[in-house]
Amino acid sequence: MKLEIELTGDADGDFPLPRDIVGEEIGTAVLSLLEGYELVTVTLSCVSEDEMRRLNLRYRDIDEPTDVLSFPLWEDGGEFRPPEGWRSLPLGDVVISPDFVRRGAAEANIGYNDEMARMVVHGTLHLVGFDHGDENAAAVMLDLQERTVKRVFSRAGKNNGAAPASLRFKGGLMSGWIPI
């Protein structure tokens, strides 16, 4: 399977996104749910806190910014129901506020890349039907999320302890094919 991630953004400034998380680790986390597809696509957008607040108000009726929102294409009654027989599957959109993530990481005393990786994984898991609406669902989703993030950074540790390399983008569109 290949995973294509389109990165877009309208937030001001440059925002590092962990290269390892934008691809292989997301694919590993959701691979078992997506058997039979040759290509899976996710759109990942970075927006300002003001835009995130507007999106959160419009779609969740909450008038404050948040770290990540997901907009799945294949959710039906809270269930992940992708079409059968397709070779290519667009999953939906993940929207992240890098400034919100950066502030949250500082408050939690963790690195920005750690928290950004967590948000990318979290948002993508929502695209494939995971949720944290009740205690049991939250435990399953957060366990998979944390195992995935841990894999990213344990693998990075094999490279002389360096954090994953990051790619930087400023608006526009960046996409790539990542074999899974």
Walk me through this protein's architecture.
Strand 5 (75-76) and strand 6 form a beta hairpin. This protein has a single domain, classed as Collagenase (Catalytic Domain) (3-Layer(aba) Sandwich), CATH 3.40.390.30. It has 180 residues and is α/β, with parallel strands linked by helices. The chain has helices at residues 21-30, 49-60, 98-107, 112-127, 135-157; strands spanning 2-9, 15-18, 39-46, 68-72, 75-76, 79-80, 88-96, 166-169, 174-179. A 5-stranded mixed sheet has the order 4-7-3-1-9, with helices on both faces. 39% of the residues lie in helices and 27% in strands. The chain has 5 helices and 9 strands.
Largest sheet: 5 strands, mixed
Radius of gyration: 16 Å
Count of individual beta strands: 9
Order of helices and strands: EEHEHEEEEHHHEE
Instruction: Look up the CATH topology.
Output: Collagenase (Catalytic Domain)
Range of helix content: 25-40%
The domain count comes to 1
Summarize this, please?
This protein is α/β, with parallel strands linked by helices. It is built from 5 helices and 9 strands. It has one domain: Collagenase (Catalytic Domain), CATH 3.40.390.30.
Element layout with pairings:
Blueprint: E1 2-9, E2 15-18, H1 21-30, E3 39-46, H2 49-60, E4 68-72, E5 75-76, E6 79-80, E7 88-96, H3 98-107, H4 112-127, H5 135-157, E8 166-169, E9 174-179
Parallel strand pairs: 1-3, 3-7
Antiparallel strand pairs: 1-9, 2-8, 4-7, 5-6
Helix pairs in contact: 1-4, 1-5, 3-4, 4-5
